[in-house]
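Journal club side-thread
Mid-discussion, someone asked how the predicted structure for our own chain would compare to the paper's figures. Pasting it here so we can look after the session.
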Amino acid sequence: MEKFIVINDGRMAPILRIVRRVALAAGCAGLMAACASVVDPPMAAPTGEAQLSCGAQIGNWAIGERDTATVRARLLSETGASTIRLLNEETAGIMDHRPDRLNIRVGPNNSIRRLSCG
């Protein structure tokens, strides 16, 4: 059996309690700060010209037409969009907004139902 000798004359005990409490409080504050989340402000919805920068309104003639490579090529050249994304009418697209991209929504019979930017 080991024996430990503790030398304590009582003068350091209050100081050690204060140091321990300060260290404990600092540790808790650090943990709480690490758990805090930083929230970015929401992005403003595009308005005006930025919303229509892919030229979706110019391609309104295609609504009701069947989606073909020829129609898509004409839409791309007339609207000035940099890319086209083809989406089924009932399928959700991912929310990566690109104002220069033309979204083409097609219905069940492959007819173009809606054009939008994004």
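Post-session note: The longest strand covers residues 83-88.
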